[in-house]
Structure formats: structure tokens, C-alpha cells
Amino acid sequence: TMVCAPDPASMPILHALVQEFDLRLAIHNHGPEDRRFPTPQSAMEAASKYDRRIGLCVDVGHTARAGVDPARAIRECRERVYDIHLKDIHANAPNGAPIEVGRGALDIPAILDALRAIRVREGRQRPGAGVVRVGRLRPGRPAAHAPVGGLGVAGRLAPYAGVLAPYPPAPFPQ
User: Fold this and answer.
1) Rounded distance, CA 40 to CA 48, Å?
2) Measuring CA to CA, how many Å separate 28 from each of 4, 140, 155?
3) How many other C-beta atoms can be found within 10 angstroms of the C-beta atom of residue 1?
4) Bridge-partner residues for 131, per DSSP?
5) Separation of alpha carbons 64 and 101, rounded Å
6) Per-residue pLDDT tens for 114-163?
7) DSSP string covering 64-125, please?
8) What percent of the chain stands above pLDDT 70?
9) How far is it, in rounded angstroms, from Cα 103 to Cα 100?
10) How far apart are CA 68 and CA 99, in angstroms?
């Protein structure tokens, strides 16, 4: 799956390319500042007119900053969720800044429950499935493994181990 933020005028060209080369694209929403795709629903509206291989990369932080509940958006757009950018933000507001997963304002368990409900699992590449990517706050240290209290975020999210994958993914073998 290729994550992108295309110009809406390029959608017919992308439609032709996904068909010709059997690619899968995921339109990434970028929050309230983005006039093209601020929410997963706006990306879904654009994608739904084209080949099913054009879907969504739901960025849960940007989704919340745009005033939309990420868990609800994941469920509403379930048919075309191909990638997730999992992060947390310090406040559910347009100026929400990234913070370690589990320490911020987002309801991370509800988001992960929504992902489970739509059957997103690490590495599954079938229509309607996707990959969760956990954002990094510091080089080499996934946000989901940053220590928070006794167990750390990774310990608190252990029941969701099959849903999480580090971001960026490991490089392809040479």
C-alpha cells in the first residue's frame, strides 16, 4: 500500500494507475489545515468514486484535531481503511501536538477496538484490511514503547499486540 496525499485533480490518473499496475493507494488525511483531505470522511468521499484499490490512511491524531472521533471514522470508512497512523495528541483540539501513545487525549483503546472490529491486523494485505503504523517521537524509539508509569504504554497496550506494527516498517530484504 502506498500512502499519499494527492491533488484531487489527479484522482482519475491514480485510478488508471492502480488498475494498470495493480497498486493499492491510501489517501492520508492531514487535519484541519488541509483543505483537500482534513478527515477520513473527506478522503473516503474522494476515493469512493474510483477503484476499490484507492482507500484511506487514517491518521488518528489529525482526525481528532479536525474534530472527528477517530474510532467512529475508522468504523464508518471500514471498507477502504488500508493504513493507520497511530499517535496521540496532548489535546483534542486543532492545535493538538503529538505525545507518546497513551499519554494524551485520544481514546487509544477505543481506536484499537475499532481496528479489531474491522479486522485490521499487522501485515494482512487483503481488501478491507490494513496495517497500523505507530508514530515515532524520537529516532529509534517507537512511541508505543515509551515508558509511562509502571507498565509503560507497551504493557498497557499488550492486548492489542496483533494490531500494532512499528513505523516506519522494516526495509525490504535485498
Assistant:
1) 12
2) 6, 23, 28
3) 16
4) 83
5) 14
6) 998 887 654 444 444 455 555 554 444 444 444 433 344 555 565 555 55
7) HHTT--HHHHHHHTGGGEEEEEE-EESSSSTTPPEE-TTSSSS-HHHHHHHHHHTT--TT--
8) 68
9) 6
10) 18
